[in-house]
Design a protein that fits this description.
two-stranded antiparallel ribbon, alpha/beta, 10 helices, 294 residues, globular, six-stranded parallel sheet, Rossmann fold
């Protein structure tokens, strides 16, 4: 089925809905926002690079003249920036929050919270924002969509090294953060009655995150990658469907075939035992409580 036909069949008008999206200047983010705008949604773009965010806003406004687009600058590695952006969102009465931003193989550092930056960008900051936005989202019977990853299954958590700051392998560090994000959100899905939640993952797509190889190697493999992997325009459909499809605390949405390729499908998710899920929930809430009084 072609992308356009899938969108016609599985989505509906978002006219009158205000949706905030993190990480909108990359491949997946841009494709997702174009789909949301085409369905009539008003958008709030949350990005670290204000210049690139403004430029993309202008693109969207030229392409979708009835769409309202705002920009809010946020650096997910800096807690003061995260808190400021969250307070701005509270004033804008959003109907849906989509956490799409991610960081994979980047220079490692400790953030002002004391956490590793990969862990903070992929889990700590979005979880804090979502918890802070819940009262408003409850009033509006809103929705939260977070972008997960099959990398979350690369290893179990380690309560003695929560953010994997002692690990060096990028796939483990990133996967650990996505594991926390995935199961903390599913815990909220189980608890919340007025807000719908969805964890969606795009499978494998040619985006900035896949461009983490050394330059010489990447120059050789990037063209085959473009052929083999789904393009962002198609990969983002799993995230888009999360705006419409409610998931239980035992499900997520991703590509149909092997969680890698194909159109979106809702699937059971059982990659963590109940004891580990409970530990993730405990650590997530403890982290939020500490940061909420920071």
């Amino acid at each position: 089925m072609k992308t356009k036909k899938w969108i016609q069949r599985y989505t509906r008008s978002l006219s009158g809905k205000r949706i905030a999206v993190t990480g909108t200047t990359g491949g997946l983010g841009k494709a997702l926002c174009r789909n949301l705008a085409s369905l009539g949604a008003d958008l709030i773009l949350l990005d670290r690079n204000a210049e690139r965010s403004d430029a993309f806003r202008d693109e969207l406004l030229r392409e979708f003249d009835e769409c309202s687009v705002e920009c809010v600058t946020v650096d997910l590695s800096e807690f003061s920036s995260v808190r400021k952006a969250t307070e701005e969102l509270k004033e804008k009465e959003i109907d849906c929050f989509i956490h799409n931003a991610g960081a994979y193989s980047i220079p490692r550092k400790l953030c002002d919270t004391g956490y590793d930056n990969v862990f903070q960008i992929n889990f700590v900051s979005p979880y804090f924002m979502i918890r802070e936005l819940l009262p408003m989202l409850r009033e509006r019977h809103g929705r939260v969509v977070v972008v997960g990853s099959i990398a979350h299954n690369y290893s179990n958590i380690d309560p003695e090294d929560i953010d994997f700051s002692t690990r060096k392998k990028a796939s483990l560090v990133y996967g650990n953060a996505k594991r926390y994000l995935t199961y903390s959100i599913l815990a909220l899905a189980e608890q919340e009655k007025e807000v719908d939640f969805c964890v969606a993952h795009p499978g494998i797509s040619f985006t900035n995150i896949t461009a983490h190889y050394p330059k010489l190697i990447f120059a050789v493999i990037k063209h085959p990658m473009k052929v083999i992997f789904m393009k962002p325009k198609r990969a983002c459909l799993s995230i888009l469907w999360g705006v419409f499809e409610k998931c239980s605390s035992e499900e997520w949405i991703g590509p149909k075939f092997f969680d890698v390729w194909g159109l979106p499908k809702k699937k059971k998710l059982a990659t963590a035992k109940p004891s580990e899920r409970a530990e993730i929930t405990r650590i997530a809430e403890n982290t939020y409580q500490i940061l909420s009084v920071k």
